[in-house]
Design goal:
It is a single chain. The protein folds into two domains: 56 residues; 32 residues, no CATH class. Helix content is 62%, strand content 10%. The protein contains three helices and two strands. It has a two-stranded antiparallel sheet with strand order 1-2.
Length: 102
């Protein structure tokens, strides 16, 4: 039995350095890939934060004002107005536009 055990131990001993070296290589490669991933995500986050903070476009909106008083004209009642009397159809206009639509 001791002879068989020695053969098995020597086989394990021969395989162990290869598997240990492979395991070490894999263990060294994994942190590198994780570090690169963390670095890339951090770089993209920083780039986005920089763009958000610095790339502000100018406000080009202008205020609009009503030049005349608004008017609402009710259009002639529709057939559906009997069924729904609380609703109506109105036209919105200001100044001269109201006079034309009457």
């Amino acid at each position: 039995m001791s002879g068989e055990q020695n053969v098995e131990d020597s086989a394990v001993a021969e395989e162990t350095p290869q598997t240990l070296s492979e395991a070490l290589k894999e263990a060294q490669e994994k942190p590198k890939s994780v570090l690169w991933l963390i670095f890339l995500l951090s770089a993209f986050f920083c780039l986005g934060a920089y763009d958000f903070a610095v790339n502000v476009e100018e406000n080009l909106c202008d205020m609009t004002y009503m030049f005349e008083l608004p008017s609402y004209l009710q259009l002639r009642p529709l057939a559906s107005s009997r069924k729904f009397p609380q609703y109506g159809l109105y036209v919105y206009g200001e100044g001269e536009l109201v006079k034309v639509t009457r």
